[in-house]
């Protein structure tokens, strides 16, 4: 299904919720720190909202969660993304019906079979950002691991660690597919498993995911991340230091979104110290990919929110994304860079090229990202009086923002 680009913007949700709240343009604009004229253009689809800071400000003004503004106005046009969405409800049912010591299943499969599926998920499906295959596998694998923990005493710890990885990626998948509320449920399951493991690094990793699953509430993301980082302060194990660094990256992005540039840069610097402190460690704790390359990817994302403009290209130039095994991270690096470049009309062609690379890396992730969709819609509006690039029209069609031809 395709919709006109004027119907596929965050502004439509803003307009609907503002009317429901019976608030005036001037009232909402004043609370959000923008002009009424600018808000009017957002609502009419003449300006897109491609910065998380603006979404957060509008959500606060309207007294709703930011996720309310990011909700898709129409079903996904991409059939692959739609297939992944078809499994979301089953994942939620499984999360609701399992807890440590009380699995839904009465019998556990043999551990080698569970381990084989776990290996397939973590070795093949997650790095490839194959949301459809991941979503199809997750319900059974989650229930298998809960059952194994309860019934297979010889593999209890392995089941807990398996759950940490599965819930980590499950929460990310649910968040990236826009399953509002469910990422937090998966993250809280992860927190309970981490407490059972009882080690600081595992608990910190779970709190990192809880912060990531805050439904766009950047103040909660910031608070949760800083509390967890404080709890890890002084830990010297490399796994704990990696988590500590990732928590400060969470804090950096949240601070940038909240309009606190000095705090954002300070948290980036703190995370960078952990990059140096863990440089000789070969492990990748809970698939967080902490290290110099991922720090550079986050630096670009923070720079977009800070509106750093030309500096983004300088930051990006030092990032070798091929060093990251996860297609999702590579794709979002190009997607974030495209968002930043698109803010400068003279860099429109560069932004389109970055969007093309992003989609090549992780199509399922990019086509479901609301900020990428807003960016494409905005670029397409700018091109209305021109022929528009074939690359841009093709991407807009695949995102369901424009008809074929």
Automatic annotation (TrEMBL):
Keywords: DNA-binding. It comes from Amycolatopsis arida. This is Transcriptional regulator, contains XRE-family HTH domain. InterPro entries: Cro/C1-type_HTH (IPR001387), Lambda_DNA-bd_dom_sf (IPR010982), TransReg_Diox_bact_type (IPR050807). The lineage of its organism: Bacteria, Bacillati, Actinomycetota, Actinomycetes, Pseudonocardiales. One of its GO terms (molecular function) is DNA-binding transcription factor activity. It holds the Pfam family HTH_31. PANTHER family: HTH-TYPE TRANSCRIPTIONAL REGULATOR (PTHR46797), METHYLPHOSPHONATE SYNTHASE (PTHR46797:SF1). Residues 14-69 form the HTH cro/C1-type domain. One of its GO terms (cellular component) is cytosol.
